[in-house]
Design goal:
This protein is mainly α. Helices cover 71% and strands 4% of the residues. It has a two-stranded antiparallel ribbon.
Length: 209
């Protein structure tokens, strides 16, 4: 049995076939986020399983920007796991200045456009590795670019991170629904709720600090 193939079905929910690879990526993503909310070191190894599974899944459904995004997350995860026990001064919750918001906006638009153009042509440049053209390359590239920026803002403990996470979660839900990855789309509904909760909690700290 090819465990990594999206055609290998673990079970069905309302006639929707859930492959082993989608099930693995989705479950370990939720487990990783669960451990992250509790500052548990297991968030890192479970995150790695999630990223590898999604890398394989996104390749098979031609979401190449999302696929490459998992490489970025994998590097950050390994770095975070290595540095987990390092003691640092806790950063206060802060907010981006108007100028910084404008800068991030420009980077988001430019990054989406450049990555979209690249992803839309990758099957022409590397047909041996990407035999099929990318699906929704610009939407997929927006998710990738926004995720990178949101991760950077999260590391700086700036409340604006949750605005980006909420936005890209909504986009991801729709994108994965269109691509028929329903189980993963459901996971992003949960992530959307967590992002909104994070925004509310950080806003309280921003007011009190």
């Amino acid at each position: 049995m090819d465990f990594f193939s999206i055609n290998q079905v673990a079970f069905r929910v309302l006639d929707y076939p859930i492959s082993y690879i989608e099930l693995t990526g989705t479950l370990f993503g939720l487990i990783s986020v669960y451990y992250a909310t509790r500052a548990n070191v297991l968030t890192w190894p479970t995150g790695i399983v999630n990223e590898i599974a999604l890398f394989v899944l996104f390749f098979q459904v031609q979401l190449y920007a999302d696929m490459l995004l998992q490489v970025f997350f994998l590097v950050v995860t390994i770095f975070g796991w290595y540095n987990w026990k390092m003691k640092t001064t806790e950063l206060p919750v802060s907010r981006l200045s108007n100028a910084a918001v404008a800068l991030y906006g420009v980077v988001l638009i430019a990054g989406t456009a450049l990555m979209g153009m690249t992803i839309s042509r990758v099957h022409l440049w590397l047909p041996a590795y990407f035999p099929l053209p990318a699906a929704y390359p610009y939407v997929d590239s927006f998710v990738m670019t926004a995720s990178i920026l949101a991760t950077l803002l999260l590391a700086k403990k700036q409340i604006d991170t949750w605005i980006l996470w909420i936005t890209l979660d909504v986009v991801s839900i729709v994108l994965y629904l269109i691509k028929g990855i329903y189980f993963l789309s459901l996971e992003y509904v949960i992530f959307l709720g967590l992002a909104y909760s994070g925004f509310i909690q950080w806003r309280k700290k921003l007011q009190y600090d």
